[in-house]
Amino acid sequence: EAECKVSKDNSHWCRSMVACSYVLSSTMLTISNTVLLRSSAVLPPEILLLEQQLLIILTCFPAHYFKFVKIERVRLPSFTLMIVIFSFMFYALLSMYSQKFLELSLYTTLRKSQVVLTVLLEYLVLRKSPTTWIVVSVCFVLSGSILMGVSELRGNFTGYLYAGFCNVFGALYIVSIAYHKQATKTSDSFNTIFQCSLYLAIFSGILALARNRNLMSYTYTLTDWRVLLSISLAGIMNSTVILNTRANSPLTQSVCS
User: Fold this and answer.
1) What distance in Å separates the CA atoms of residue 58 and residue 69, rounded to the nearest whole number?
2) Which residues contact 72 (CB under 8 A, 6 or more apart)?
3) What spatial distance separates the first Cα and last Cα of the chain, rounded to whole Å?
4) Distance between CA atoms of 212 and 210, rounded to whole angstroms?
5) How far apart are CA 95 and CA 69, in angstroms?
6) What is the pLDDT of residues 194-211, one digit of tens each?
7) What's the predicted TM-score (pTM) here?
8) Which of 22, 184, 200, 206 has its CA 20 to 30 A from that of 247?
9) ∠ CA(48), CA(35), CA(38), 5° rounding?
10) What whole-number distance in Å separates Cα of residue 68 and Cα of residue 64?
11) Dist CA 53 CA 243 (whole Å)
12) What is the pLDDT of residue 1?
């Protein structure tokens, strides 16, 4: 009984640490991305995304070689993994454009409405009914966010549109992670990260080329410490999103966002 209690205490401590790690890395990444995307040095969102995902992919290979993580052979994704990848790609891209067009305080305020969508999708997809306390808590979070951001509202409808769709795909992404875990018990968290980063890198590269971007002309940005910091934080945050969703729940992850 004593061992069981110690195990539960350690489990609670680990879940709390994962959630705190996500909050810290997400906050720092949001600030870093906003500074980069709104600075005088024009760095397109798709280029920054491509650089971030390439570093994550390159980090996964040595980690797999030394058996720190397990990366499976790339093949046609299963239906559940396809939903995770699809929602992640659009969530990441829309998040970048939201940060480009919105002030930091307004972006973080609008992102809080994702909690409502997450609760709804948890019920529809995972058949997880919210308790009364969860509903009350979500209402408080949403009300507080609206009150905090009311003074920041401006006529930037493009930014609002990006943020709105970002919330939709963000909620779908974290709920689909939990759904994928239920469907494939043996799936490694870091393999999911690798798969998502691989497809997002391809998608970002195609999007950049479609917009006539010269990819090689942006290689100089890799010597900028702000870009390197953003790339590193993206890798940490992408990892903690999946770990936090699996260790806690999609709703917890959404509240932490």
Assistant:
1) 13
2) 188, 191
3) 36
4) 5
5) 27
6) 888 999 999 999 998 888
7) 0.82
8) 200
9) 80
10) 6
11) 18
12) 43
CB atoms closer than 10 angstroms to residue 224: 13
Q: Which amino acid is at 104?
A: L
Q: Are 166 and 98 in contact (CB under 8 A)?
A: yes
Task: Specify the residue for token string 């979070």.
Answer: 141
Burial of 131-170, coded b for 16+ CB within 10 Å and e otherwise, reads eeebeebbeebeeebeeebeeeeeeeeebbebbebbbbbb
Confidence of residue 253 (pLDDT cuts 50, 70, 90): low
Provide the CA 38 distance to its chain's centre, in angstroms: 20
**Who's near 15: CB < 8 A, 6+ residues apart?**
247, 248
Question: What size, in residues, is the chain?
Answer: 257
What single-letter DSSP state applies at residue 130? P
Q: Encoding tokens for residue 37?
A: 């995307």
Identity (one letter) of the amino acid at 152?
E
Cα distance between residue 168 and residue 91, in whole Å: 8
Rounded to 10 deg, the angle between the 104-111 and 79-101 helix axes is 150
CB burial class (10 A; 0-12, 13-18, 19+) of residue 216?
exposed
Average pLDDT over residues 236-242: 77
